[in-house]
Design brief:
Layout lengths: L8 E6 L5 H14 L4 E5 L5 H11 L8 H25 L3 E5 L2 H11 L4 H12 L6 E6 L2 H8 L12 H17 L3 E5 L4 H18 L2
Helix pairs in contact: 1-8, 2-3, 3-5, 4-7
The protein binds ligand Z5A.
Amino acid sequence: MVDRLTGKFLTLEGSEGAGKSSNLDIVVTTLRDCGVDVATTREPGGTETAESIRELLLAVRDEPLDDLAELLLMFAARAQHLTTKIRPMLRAGTWVVCDRFTDATYAYQGGGRGIDAASIALLEQLVHGDLQPDLTLYLDVPVEVAFQRIGDRDLDRIEREERAFFERVRANYLERAGREERIEIIDASASLEAVAAAVEQTIRRFVAAHP
Ligand code: Z5A
């Protein structure tokens, strides 16, 4: 049976400190101003079970987490999230804005950890088939700037990776953004106001193209 998803699926991507949290509000406010019924969520997480998986993924422990276990947990959380939250909302015509999705898996587990893209693509196909975001905003910021913004806050397991890891993550995002038409690159090294203006403009353009 064909799954009729009438809502639009938007995702926000970027390295930590790129300003996703800060700009999620701009996306939602702009969509509401355009009369769109919108809900927000995040990955890994978004449902009670998926949030428990998030805790497993981000907790700092003595036992190192195996790269493949990390990849499978990301997709386990995603499967749960899609079935119990994202697909039902899209079916009901609600637009969903998700803080990170599978592009992050290609960037972090693929680019960062070095897992081959073909293995990720296999899981992607299994977990979400043809469902892809209709629009992805990639907030791009040099690693140096991101590190300065994060400062000395309490870092989770993934944030503790070394600089070279985040350089590979960024390179992977940029490479995908160059290939995928749905991914819009936003220069997130600009001021908060300039980034917010670029985000708002991109959202208004998308809504105008999808009345
Ligand atoms: N992950 C993965 O590995 N694989 C996957 O498939 C998925 C995720 C889905 C948790 O994600 C981790 O999961 C993440 C990737 C991994 N790990 N890392 N590292 P998350 O999205 O929940 O966590 P995060 O990336 O650490 O989010 P964040 O720290 O909240 O980043 P942010 O939302 O982009 O930053 P922010 O809180 O909006 O801004 C950070 C600070 O910078 C704050 O003080 C702002 O005021 C400041 N800021 C933001 N923009 C500006 C500008 N333009 N100018 C000046 N200052 C700014």
